[in-house]
Amino acid sequence: MSGAKETTKKERKKIQFTEDVSLSPHGIQCKPISPNEASIDLGLLSSLHTYEVTFDMVHELGNEIQIPPLQSPLIEVTNMQQLSNGTNGHTITLEIKCPECSSLKETICFENVSEQTYELTLTSRIMPHHMGTPALKDGVRLLQGSPGSTSDATDWKGF
C-alpha cells in the first residue's frame, strides 16, 4: 500500500499562474478591441428577466458624449457619469431585457459632438428561466424576474 501512496504524491502537480492572469474574473470588464470598439461578457443570465448592469468604459471620445437613442429593444442606456479618477471614460448603467433565446449579442454605439463613435458589443448566454438562478457577476443586478416565475400563489396549504 505504501507504494501506491508514493506514486500519487509524485503525480501531484502544482498549479502556477502567470502574473498577468486576473484572479478576480467575477466583475464586468469592458475589454478594448480597438481604439473605437470594446466588448463585454455579461456571463450567464436568465431568460425573460430584466437586469441592471453597471461598468466603467474607458474611451477617447471626451466628456461630451450623449446617451444614445434606443438602438436595441433589449438594451437601454439609463445613466452615464464621467469617471472620477481622472481617466477618460464614463461609468455606464444599462437595463437589459433578456430574450427567450440561448444567447444575446447586441451592439450599441456611443457618439460625441464631433461625431466620433465608440461601439460596445455585449454578449451573454441565456438560460431558460425555469432552470434555476444563475450566479451573477459583480456589476449585474436583477431588476425584475419573469412573469411566470415570481408568483406568490401556491398550492401548499401549510401545516
Notes on the protein architecture:
- The chain has 159 residues and is mainly beta.
- It has one domain (30-143): Immunoglobulin-like (Sandwich), CATH 2.60.40.
- It has one helix and eight strands.
- It has one helix spanning 2-11, and strands spanning 31-34, 37-46, 50-58, 75-82, 89-97, 103-111, 117-127, 140-144.
- It has a four-stranded mixed β-sheet with strand order 1-2-7-6, with no helix packed on it.
- A hairpin with a 6-residue loop joins strand 4 and strand 5 (89-97).
- It starts with a helix and ends in a 15-residue tail after the last strand.
- Residues 20-24 have low confidence and may be disordered.
- Pfam families: DUF4517.
Query: What number is the mean pLDDT?
Result: 81
Question: How much of the sequence is in beta strands?
Answer: 35-45%
Q: How many structural domains in the coordinates? A: 1
For CATH, the homologous superfamily is named as Immunoglobulins
Helix content: under 10%
CATH class: Mainly Beta
InterPro entries: ADISSP
Family: Belongs to the ADISSP family.
Protein name: Adipose-secreted signaling protein
Organism: Clytia hemisphaerica
